[in-house]
Structure formats: structure tokens, C-alpha cells
Design brief:
By secondary structure, the protein is mostly beta strands. The chain has one helix and five strands. About 5% of the residues lie in helices and about 35% in strands. It has a three-stranded antiparallel β-sheet, with no helix packed on it. β1 and β2 form a beta hairpin. The longest helix has 4 residues.
Length: about 70
């Protein structure tokens, strides 16, 4: 799919947004944000989105495990 330039995976269990950005040479550049006060770049829309906005109405089951790597 040549038109796909970037995509995101958003966790439903904890603060975690993963970004995959397509590079000209065909590779994918990976980045992630797990800090609730952080932001993620959305290059295809020329903007940054605060992680807190993504999770604004989300209530996690176990709030003690919000930023763990499990």
C-alpha cells in the first residue's frame, strides 16, 4: 500500500501510543510515547497530539500499572 505513510497503535490498557512512519527507502521508523504528559507527532496531518487528549475519557482498570512495560 504505497499511500500509507504512517500509522499508530494506541493501547487500551495503559498510556502508550506507538507510531510507525514510512521512510523513502522503504523502512519504517518506530517511536512511542508512554508519558501521559507527552505528545506524539502526526506528520501526515502536520500536527502534534497530546497523549492526554487521546486518553481523555479512558479509565484504566488498574491505575497502578499505567506506565509499566507489561
Amino acid at each position: 500500500l504505497d499511500s500509507l505513510k504512517e500509522y499508530f497503535l494506541v493501547s487500551q490498557k495503559k498510556f502508550r501510543v506507538e507510531r510507525f512512519a514510512g521512510q523513502e527507502e522503504g523502512n519504517w521508523l518506530y517511536s512511542e510515547v508512554t508519558d501521559p504528559k507527552g505528545a506524539i507527532e502526526i506528520a501526515s496531518a502536520a500536527c502534534r497530539l497530546q497523549i492526554s487528549q487521546i486518553y481523555e475519557r479512558v479509565r484504566f482498570e488498574d491505575s497502578s500499572d499505567l506506565t509499566s512495560e507489561n
